[in-house]
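Second attempt. The first submission of Tetratricopeptide repeat protein had a stray character pasted in from the spreadsheet, which I only caught after the job came back as garbage. Lesson logged: always re-copy from the clean sequence file. Corrected sequence (946 aa) follows.
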Amino acid sequence: MLGPVTAWRGTQPVGLGTSKCRQVLGMLLLHANRRVDREQIIEGAWGSNPPRSAVNLVQKYVGDVRRALELDGDSLVTVGTGYLLRVAPDQLDSTQFASDLEHARETKNGGDLDRARQTLADAMALWRGPAFSGIDTPTADTERARLDEYRIGALEDIAELDLLRDNHALAVAELSRLASEHPYRERVRELLMIALYRSGRQADALAVYQDIQRLLADELGTNPGHGLQRVHAQILRADPALSEGAAPREPESLPVCQLPADIPDFTGRAEQLEDVLGLLTGGRNAVIVGAPGTGKSTLAVRAAHLAREMFPDGQLYLDLAGTADVPRDTAMMLAELLRALGVTDAVMPDGLHERAALYRSRLAGRQMLVLLDDAAGAHQVRPLLPPSTGCAALVTSRHLLGDLTSAHHVELDVLPSEDARALLAGIVGSDRTDREPEQAVAIVERCGRLPLAIRIAGARLASRQAWTLQVLQDRLEDESRRLCELRVGDLDLRANFDLSVRMVPADSARAFRLMGLLGAETLPGWVIGALIDQHDADDVLDALVDANLVRLMDTDSVGQPRYRLHDLLRAYAAKAAEEHYPLEERRAAVERVLGAWLALTEQARDLFYPSLFEPTRGAASRWQPVYKVVDPIAWFDVERGRLLHAIQLAVDWDLDELAWELAVAAVPYYDHRSLYQDWIRSHRIALTSRTLRGEAALLQSLGQVHIYLDEDAKALRALKRSVQLHHEAGDKRGSALALAGLATMRRVHGNYDLALGDACAALNLCVEVGHQHMEAQLRSAIGLIRLIQGNLDEAKEWIDSGLAVARQLRDRHRQAVILRNSSKYFQQADDTPAALRCLTKALTIFKDLNDERCAAYTEQRVGNVYAQLDDHPRARYALQRAADVFYVNADRRNEAECWQQLGELDVRHGELDAARTHLGRALELWQAIELADRAAAVEIALQRIN
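This time the job returned cleanly.
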């Protein structure tokens, strides 16, 4: 794609036939792994004057592409009135180019400058001309500009590497060419000044600065940026630092950029755009306010993209859902921002104020822009505002946020007449509006010059090329078919929405109305089928997309197209659902959607290794969508936020069984990813809608996460209550799971007799109900307790019996856990080689399963064995690796164990400074989890070496 669209099979080029076939392939690749509508392909191939046979020709050319590339039915598929081309990342030169850039940066950071430059040179060799050459559409222009930006950046990186390698003459030649081709790129000028200075050409270096200073002042009315000014000052004072290395470039990785795509057909708003940019340039927060449909978000996104260079450390974005019935929770949004800034869930603060403080701390000293879209009020925005120095916030809201004293407001009204006509022409094509200028004026006036209304009208015209503008004008003349009461102060688009809904098939209208019940989330397409109880609902959804009632947002990382209702349409749809369908029908639709979420969650869960936390199945109904989960981790990662929303939705609709079953079905994923806060939040939401069995299962699961978080008192309370409730419900499987958790807690606290009793009781129940995976685990756990009690022979029998059951089940995860316990037996039996063999096998399995936390437990055991052998280097390596993982996962108990053991080993080997460091860390952790006896032991050890 980096040039004219070309394909290869191996090293042989593939003939693509006519130029139109190549253009069709280009349009499919522009939207690779996403559905591209047939009309978009026609526009890309023929522009605004397609032949009458364009539809048939597209079908022919798609067939030609399929045959030329020898694509099977899964690689190039027909989706409604469009097509979807599935392409792996390694099949595209654009992704290879991006991969080479990333690899070059890593190599440079590692110190291998020659290899980094060669990697960049290889990346540049992929370019054969302008990207997507020969394809002239707004989408192609946007993608071409994006790729070209990376290309020029790569050339800058090559020049910087030449400077770092003292090849100043080569850098001067290349940078001079780049400065001539791209006169406004300040980074190029900055590097050129350094290259000239190091080549002994100080006067020429200063002349470069004077030239860019004059150019920026004359043509843009601005001054050179901070980087250029810094280098200029360094040259004037002959700063020695300028002779060492390349120009400082502080970020070691690409900055965060979460902005939505820029608006290619942005029209008007010049004065307001200038006001917003002026505020942001001055480091002040800006609030764009206005009535619904006035284009607040459009202006904000446009301004944010224009201001990107002013905020080189990145741009953050949040949709605050202020127009929803329940705006988004500020604490949850702070967590989302903190994740983008590198804070993991394991160390995420719980409270709103703590998160806000950490957020401000993370932004301190950075230059970042925060775009907060659709704010409900100042109370929602205030904790999300960045610190004033270096950062700025851009907020959109329907309301004046007068009590947000740190912000300046920019108000939007309807578009001026000229801009309104230009917006319509940009959507439908200026040739059509020029042919019927009076009709174009009439249409925008009927739309009240409101941007959203004009876009709706323009979209209808653009999708109906055979219509004249007079046809739409005539339709709008009739008040019953026209946008109704278009007023800035009291906006009502209901007439337009009614019209749009009446124009789609009955199934589509029903799906649209019911979709309004699901909230503001972006949703996968299978949701439509669940809403109307129809598995093949592609045509229903396509009709809604074509009518601009549902927006296709993007395609997620697992290949699901995602859709969303505009906020006004969503509110209208929910109200229309109340008017059209009784409560029972609406509730049944929501229940089917949540039943589908449950079916897919269980499908993803079952693709993991067998989970010990799977409770007895509840009474919730399942609805199986056509979509199938392939990669469970990737699917859970994508749907993580939607699952929490689904649980809340189940509670809101009093669907108690669905609420708790959804929560516990996601536990294997939360466990694998160590997402303890999601785990706890999902269960607390579900507990607000209680059933006996549901409460029992949720408390058992909460007990487990409290164990992970060293919250022993909470774990004991939850597990004891869970045992009681499971007993009342007659659920023996659930009782076994809760008793197993209690056994773990009591073993950790040294109550071995009680632990043994609970474990044996749990084992009997597991055997009775046939839960063999837990049976294997409990046999091993009993063996471990007997080992602690000093009964080695009996311990080995129990552990071996558990391993035999796990092998019979082919449960590799359980085998690895039991092998880790076997190592404790062999270590206590003075058979160190056997212990290490067990641990090596366990570690191999955990790494194959990508279970980082269990691998860390195993590394900790390896460190214990080597510490017992007094092998300091090997013990230190294993214990440090384990401690690092425990830190990330907030497992303070095991992290403390690692540091304490390592510190004690340091003492034995006379490395007292290291011992003080490691024992000091252990002491802080023991004190944090309030284990006074462990903390006291470490304090004594520290006193002895101080």
